[in-house]
Design goal:
The protein is of the alpha+beta class. It has helices spanning about 1-5, 10-15, 15-25, 30-40, 85-95, 100-135, 140-145, 155-160, 165-170, 205-215, 225-235, 240-250, 255-260; strands spanning about 60-65, 70-75, 175-180, 180-185, 190-195, 200. The strands form 2 sheets. Strands 2-1-3-4 form a 4-stranded mixed β-sheet, with helices on one face. A two-stranded antiparallel sheet has the order 5-6. A hairpin with a 2-residue loop joins β3 (about 175-180) and β4.
Length: about 260
């Protein structure tokens, strides 16, 4: 194993096992076994002694099933509770306060009220968007990401009565806790495909299908992108080979020639 890593690292990374076997006077099966063992090693062993950063996500929205119905609950802990201080109202009522002072305070009170109103409106917009997500993605909530339906921001914007950019800003950096786990709200917005039977599938569902095909393939004869296209086509899912290659890359799946096992 040491000699393989020391002398044939590039070939190992590209899984050129027959070339390594020929140069080292070994069988391909022996190289495969060594590669499997090497793959179990930690390339950064020192990290176990370093403290990993603790990153936590506090969901902005929680979806729970209560008495058979999905309920949307906003988490208000991260939202500051703002109000206009009575001190400034008292200053406004004092006779000794000059007109210039009162005009200044009046302008700042007006700005403060606008800020408070904007925060409430943003929370209401998030709530409306979350309700739309729940209404449109019930199959996902019940059965998981393979059943995520295509959904665009334009559709939700029309339903909520705001502009598409308002939806984009409202969900930016926001998280939703669901029975299937915690997801960024933008996760639910995905284009899709129309199957031959007229059923709409999100690209997330197509990725799941590709992942399942690769997971169940034979190691001796891994599926090529063309074969995946043909299998999905038989299932009524029209998709181009370059799209399969793109999704495969996003799923961190190697090309078929590098997935082959000897």
């Amino acid at each position: 194993e040491y000699r393989i890593v020391s002398d044939h690292m590039i070939d190992l990374g590209k899984r050129r096992f027959p070339d390594i076997a020929r140069r080292m006077g070994m069988t391909v099966e022996q190289v495969q076994k060594a590669a499997n063992s090497i793959a179990q090693l930690d390339p950064r062993p020192g990290q176990v002694f370093a403290e990993a950063p603790q990153n936590y996500v506090l969901p902005d929205v929680t979806v729970e099933k209560i008495q058979g119905q999905y309920q949307v609950i906003l988490n208000g802990e991260q939202i500051p509770h703002l109000r206009i201080s009575n001190t400034y109202k008292d200053i406004m009522s004092q006779d000794g306060s000059g007109g210039e002072v009162k005009d200044y305070i009046r302008d700042k009170i007006r700005s403060g009220k606008f800020l408070i109103k904007s925060i409430h409106q943003r929370q209401q917009t998030i709530s409306n968007i979350a309700h739309q997500i729940v209404d449109r993605q019930k199959e996902f909530l019940e059965q998981g990401s393979a059943h995520l339906k295509p959904m665009t921001m334009v559709q939700i914007a029309d339903a909520v009565g705001v502009h598409e950019t308002t939806v984009s800003r409202a969900i930016s950096g926001k998280y939703m806790s669901t029975p299937q786990g915690v997801f960024e709200m933008k996760y639910f917005f995905t284009p899709g495909y129309q199957t031959s039977s007229g059923v709409s599938m999100s690209n997330t569902s197509v990725k799941e299908a590709i992942f399942d095909l690769v997971k169940g393939e034979s190691g001796c004869a891994p599926l090529s992108d063309k074969e995946i296209v043909e299998i999905l086509g038989q299932r009524g899912i029209p998709i181009a080979r370059r799209t399969v290659a793109k999704y495969r890359t996003e799923l961190n799946i190697l090309p078929s020639n590098m997935r082959r096992k000897y």
